[in-house]
Automatic annotation (TrEMBL):
PANTHER family: NADH DEHYDROGENASE SUBUNIT 1, NADH-UBIQUINONE OXIDOREDUCTASE CHAIN 1. This is NADH-quinone oxidoreductase subunit H. InterPro entries: NADH_UbQ_OxRdtase_su1/FPO, NADH_UbQ_OxRdtase_su1_CS. NDH-1 shuttles electrons from NADH, via FMN and iron-sulfur (Fe-S) centers, to quinones in the respiratory chain. The immediate electron acceptor for the enzyme in this species is believed to be ubiquinone. Couples the redox reaction to proton translocation (for every two electrons transferred, four hydrogen ions are translocated across the cytoplasmic membrane), and thus conserves the redox energy in a proton gradient. This subunit may bind ubiquinone. The chain crosses the membrane at residues 22-44, 92-112, 132-152, 173-192, 212-232, 262-288, 300-321, 333-355, 367-386. The gene is nuoH. Pfam families: NADHdh (PF00146). Its EC number is 7.1.1.-. It catalyses: a quinone + NADH + 5 H(+)(in) = a quinol + NAD(+) + 4 H(+)(out). Belongs to the complex I subunit 1 family. GO terms for cellular component: plasma membrane. Its main location: membrane.
Length: 444
């Protein structure tokens, strides 16, 4: 593996896209929109089937072949349900909030490269809408804007439960947005560009002249792990679905929404999942490139196949986590973000900076990255295994590290209390005589 990954093709994607006619740009816009809608319908049904499989249930199996049209039927039913607006809701903000959540989710996908150079209707182009010099920042900005729709929907509903869910979401996005941004910094430092097309092209080589692809998910493994954890927290998915904690906040920020407005929130959530999974594929798994080198499998429309397969891998992680892990407590969630992910990202960025400056010249770049990745992984494992410091309240009740009361370790189930003897109440003598005396009607 050479010190610099860049080939002559860096920057060629932007030049190729600059020659696209207007009609081709419109075709790409419609194609991306249709792709995201179809992926949403597929993901809803796939999630229900996978979770059902984990729980030994059949899952959807009625509508369509083997139940694969169930999500389409649910979407049509949801669109025609009655639209209810609470009396205390702010009319215009209540209406615009789901739109604000949905639009950035679609915009973020405009900078994701789906494939390399292809032929579309006789025109040579790249399967990407636009390749900006700050493409990674566009995705981060769009994911940050989506929380405004969540906060505004909770505030405009005129109900305390949606407002609490919206406030939770704001705190959650702020916490995990920082960790996600720091995980991408190492990729940008190693690549020297924030263009998504350039980042994909930078992963075209192999590690130390072996068949192992030079994906940043392998070279920058700590950044890869931090990004995967952060993207789950960023999209409010289990086990980080605290803004939508049904057991605590009814339905979260969209409790008062119904019909098409609720469908927009539902669509925005799944489109965000596809977007962050596609960005993970672009940054860490080589994008649309095949796992092995070769001209045939890395040219033309083959790239779209590899891109979809890698994206589905991350989407399966979302489903897997939802079907296996319980919801975290809020203090555990914040501890993971601020005390583990953010400090680890800062230390890893400093390590990557040392490597890039050539301070350790006796080792190759791949050896340095692998050694540092192992070191950071061990530190992360130790931080997870270390128990919290025990605390005791004034009354002697043991508390968890965050202050939550916990049961004692020697807790025993008490024996059943002895049965009480039921005493039959007796009336006083005067009361008995009064009860036996005839009434006035009987005397007559």
């Amino acid at each position: 593996m050479t010190q610099h990954y860049f080939a002559a093709e860096i920057g060629d994607t932007a030049k190729l896209l600059a020659d696209d006619p207007v009609w081709l740009v419109l075709v790409k816009v419609v194609g991306i929109f249709a792709f995201l809608v179809v992926m949403t319908l597929f993901m809803i049904n796939w999630e229900r089937k996978v979770v059902a499989r984990m729980q030994h249930r059949p899952g959807p199996n009625r509508v369509g072949p083997n139940g694969w049209l169930q999500s389409l039927a649910d979407g049509l039913k949801l669109a025609f349900k009655e639209d209810i607006r609470p009396v205390l809701a702010d009319k215009w903000v209540f209406f615009l909030a789901p739109v604000i959540s949905c639009i950035p989710a679609f915009l973020a996908f405009s900078v994701i490269p789906l494939a390399g150079e292809v032929n579309m209707f006789g025109q040579q182009t790249a399967l990407q809408l636009v390749d900006l010099p700050v493409g990674v920042l566009v995705v981060l900005a769009c994911s940050s804007l989506g929380v405004y729709g969540i906060v505004l929907s909770g505030w405009a509903s005129g109900s305390p439960y949606p407002l609490l869910g919206a406030l939770r979401s704001a705190a959650q996005v702020i916490s995990y947005e920082i960790a996600m941004g720091l995980s991408i910094v190492a990729v940008i430092m190693f690549t020297g560009s924030m263009s998504t097309g350039d980042i994909v092209n930078a992963q075209a080589s192999t590690i130390l002249n072996t068949p192992i692809p030079g994906w940043f998910g392998l070279l920058l493994f700590p950044s890869f792990v931090i990004y995967v954890v952060s993207m789950v927290g960023e999209t409010n998915r289990a086990p980080f679905d605290l803004p939508e904690a049904e057991s605590e906040l009814v339905g979260g920020f969209h409790t008062e929404y119904s019909s098409l407005k609720f469908a927009l929130f539902f669509l925005a959530e799944y489109v965000n999942m596809v977007t962050v999974s596609a960005l993970a594929t672009t940054l860490f798994l080589g994008g649309y490139r095949a796992p092995w080198s070769g001209e045939f499998m890395n040219t033309g429309w083959w790239g779209l196949l590899w891109f979809i397969v890698k994206t589905l891998f991350f989407l399966f992680i979302f489903i897997w986590l939802r079907g296996t892990l319980p919801r975290l407590r809020y203090d555990q969630f914040m501890k993971l973000g601020w005390k583990v992910l953010v400090p680890t990202s800062l230390v890893w960025i400093m390590a990557v900076a040392v490597i890039r400056t050539g301070a350790l010249k006796e080792l190759s770049t791949g050896q340095k990255l692998v050694a540092l990745g192992v070191f950071v992984g061990v530190v992360l494992l130790i931080s997870f295994l270390l128990p919290d410091k025990k605390q005791v309240s004034k009354g002697g009740v043991p508390l968890a590290g965050s202050g939550f009361p916990v049961p004692p370790l020697d807790l025993q189930v008490p024996k059943s209390a002895p049965k009480r003897k039921v005493k039959v109440a007796t009336l006083p003598k005067d009361t008995e005589a009064l009860a036996a005396a005839p009434t006035a009607k009987e005397a007559e």
